[in-house]
Give the backbone structure.
Amino acid sequence: MDSPRKIAIIGAGKMGEAIISGLLKSGAYPPQDILIFEISQNRCQYVAQEYKVRITSDINEAVNLAEVIIIAVKPGVVGKVLESIKHSIQPGKVLLSIAAGVTIEFLEKNLPKNTAVIRVMPNLACSVGEAMIVVCPSKNTGESELKIATDVLSLLGKVLKLEEKYLNLATGLVGSGPAYIFVIIDALADAGVRLGLSKGVSTVLAAQTMLGAAKMVVETGKHPAQLKDMVATPAGTTVEGLLALEEGKLRATLISAVTEAAKRAKGLMSA
Ligand SMILES: NC(=O)c1ccc[n+]([C@@H]2O[C@H](COP(=O)([O-])OP(=O)(O)OC[C@H]3O[C@@H](n4cnc5c(N)ncnc54)[C@H](OP(=O)(O)O)[C@@H]3O)[C@@H](O)[C@H]2O)c1
């Protein structure tokens, strides 16, 4: 990555904090290069104390000083934020919106013509540098501006460019995904408790098993079904467990979860 570019984060809630934390952990950003504008005084105090980042009470100061601006407020507040910063958006700045359901058309309509705008769908794992991050640049975003954004986002996880028509899907799968995985880990850990382990130990077993399985999919490039077959020996234990998963409709349930979340993403602007 080229020399760090100052970043303004508008909204330091759960995702804003995950981004701050991930950028600092990456070692590429000193706290003074991260500028925060956040409406809640409690959150301002908390992130200032916890991360030593720069807090400003003037949203335009944050935007003026930064090259990369990340909008991390709830979807229904994005219009108001754009209204207050549009006069500070100068050529050369790159604006990223992580708001679910907020389209590039909406962002462009509320910003100066030719602003480099990128719609982004990350997840909470930004905080540990292992997020999946889907990006979709506007047509006014040049290669160099996309590279600036990708360089920054790569510090937080894996970045993949997709067409905008896939962004609501990405919201259901990537944005919401960690919640489904947390439920699965918690359920596996409860199974350990049922069979006599403490919840703490059981959670470690479940989480590390999930991490290892995910890493194998990513690193081997093998189809997950092929990896599953490597675990399930004929007439063994795993195939009994797999039958229980099928009877419990785990696959259908996960497919429905992502589909419903993606549907909801479409209606968020008015929420
Ligand atoms: N949470 C996730 O896992 C996740 C994943 C992917 C994408 N996203 C997207 O990320 C965005 C933020 O989500 P979140 O979960 O981080 O929400 P959040 O925890 O509610 O954070 C939003 C923060 O922005 C503050 N805020 C409200 N109006 C503001 C304004 N005008 N200027 C500056 N700050 C303002 C809020 O303060 P108040 O609470 O006082 O209003 C809150 O602290 C959403 O658009 C969401 O779709 C979230």
The radius of gyration is 21 Å.
